[in-house]
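User: Can you help me understand a structure? I only have the sequence.
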Amino acid sequence: MLKIFLVEDEAIIREGLKDSIPWQQYGYTLAGVASDGEQALPMLYELRPDVLITDIKMPFMDGLALSRLVAKEMPRTKIIIISGYDDFEYARQALSIGVEQYLLKPISRNMLLKTLTEVQQKIQDEREQENYLEKFRSEMQEYEQFSRRRFFEQVVTGQLQVQQIYEKADQLNMNIHGSCYNLVLYSMKTKDGQVPGNADILNRLRDELTRFFMGNQEYIFVRQNLMTYAVLIKGDEQEVENGTRRCVEMIQSIGSSEQRAIEWHLAVGSPVKRLSSLPECYMEVSRVLSYRHLLPNQHIFTKSSIESLKPGDDESKLKNLDMAKLDPGVLRGFLQNGQPEELEDFAGEYVKSLWDAAKSQLFCQYLLLNVRFTVLAYVESLGYTQEEFLDSMECVKLIGRNVTAGEVQQYICDMLGKALEMREKESKSQYRDLVAQAVAYMDEHYMDENISLTEVAGYTNVSANYFSAVFSQEMQQTFVEYITGKRMEKAKELLRETDKRSSEIAAEVGYKDSHYFSFVFKKTQGCSPRAYRTERNEKG
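Assistant: Let's start by predicting it. Here is the structure, written out as C-alpha cells:
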C-alpha cells in the first residue's frame, strides 16, 4: 500500500475527501491529515508519505511553500495540488516545483480517482526501473572494477593528463578530489600445502579487505594482478595520514589473523600533493614492495625502513645475507612471485646486499653459479630444457672471468628476466587453456538464466576469485560483460530474423523477466528492442 497525506484547510472538503475515497481499494493508506502546511510539515517528516495532496491557499503556510519544502527534502514524494484558483501563475509555480497534477476545485470523485491511479502507476514504474537499475549495477560491478583498474594503471603510469584524469574519473563515478594523495600496495598468497583449505581462507580475507576499502570514501581500491592490490588514499594532509594508518592497520590485522595459511606484505608510499605526482609515488612504492622477495619474513615496507638497510650496517637484515647464508630460496621466491617490473630493483638490491662479502672473485663466481643453478632448476620445473634456456644467453660467458658489481647485477637481470619470460609464457598458455574451456562452456550455456561466475569457475576447477582475475586479464572484459554481450547479440539476431515477441526472446536468451531484458537491452544497445526491430525493418 502507498501512503498518502491530505492537507486542506476547509473542513468540509477535507472530511469529504477523507471519507468518500475508497483509499485501500485503489492501493493507498490514508496516513494522515492536516489543516495547513505548518501543522502538516512535522507529520510529513515523520511519515514520509508516497503521495501528498495539498490545497494551494491555506493560512500559516500555503500549499506552494509546503510543496517546495517537500520536493526538496522528500523528492520521492509525489505532490498533487488542488486549488480554487484558475490562475496561470499558480500553475506555473506548481510545475516549476515538480508537482504531478494541478487540479481545480470542485474536484469530482472520478477525476481524483483517475489521478490517484495514474500517480500509483508512475510510482510503480519508477520503483521497477530503480530495481532494474540496482540489479544491473550489481551485475556490472565486476565490470566497474575492471574499468577502475585500467584507469588506475593509466594514472600511475603517467598516460593521462590531469584534465583527462578528472574526465575519466567522472565517467566512472569516482571521486578523486583531494589536496593530498598516497598509495599502499599489498600482496597476499597462500602458503601452499601447509593448511587445508588455505585458498578459501585467502579468498575470505581478500573479500573482507575489499568490503572495507569499498565502504570508505577516502579509498580508491583496485586489483592489479592475481596477488597484488593497490589502495589510493585521498583527502587533505591529515585525512591522508589517518587514512594511510587505518589502511595499514586493517591489512596487518587481516593478514596476521591467518599467518599460518597465507603470506602477506604491504608497502607504503610517500604522500604527494598533486595527481600528476602519482607516477613518482607509484614507482617508489613498487620498488619498496619488491623488497618482500629479499626479506620474506618482514611484512611492512616503507621508504625509510628500506633506506635503513644499508650494506655495512651491522644490524642490517640485508647484511646477514652473506656468503655463509646465501639462500637459493630468495631467488626461487622471486622467480615464483616476482613481477618483471620489479626485476631491476630486485637485482640491484640483491647484489648490494652481498657485495661487501664479495671481496674475492671466488665469491663472485660462486654467486654466478648459484644464480645459474637456481634458475635452471626453476625453468626445468616449468617443462623447459637447459639447452632451451641457455640458447643465445651471452651472459653465461661471465662465468670464469673477473667481474664487476655491475656485471653481476646485469647477469642476474638477464638470467631471471628470461626465466620470467618463460614463466609468463607458460602461465599464459595455462590461462588460455582455462579461459578457452570456460568460454566454450559459456557459449553453450549463456541462455541459462542462472549461469554464474561461480558455476563457470567450478566447471574449470578453480576458485571464483582466481577465475574472475584470469578471465578479465585474458579477455580484456569481465565475465558479466561477456555473458551480456552474447545475450544481446543473440537477441538482436532474433529481433532481425524472427517475429517473436520481446518476452519470448528474453526467455530464449536467458532473462526470466522480460521487462528487465528490455531494460538491459536499452542500457547496452542505446534503444529498446522494439525500436531496434523497427529500425532494422525500415533499413531492410
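Now, to help you interpret it: The chain has a mean pLDDT of 84. The two ends are 48 Å apart (CA to CA). Let me know which part you'd like to focus on.
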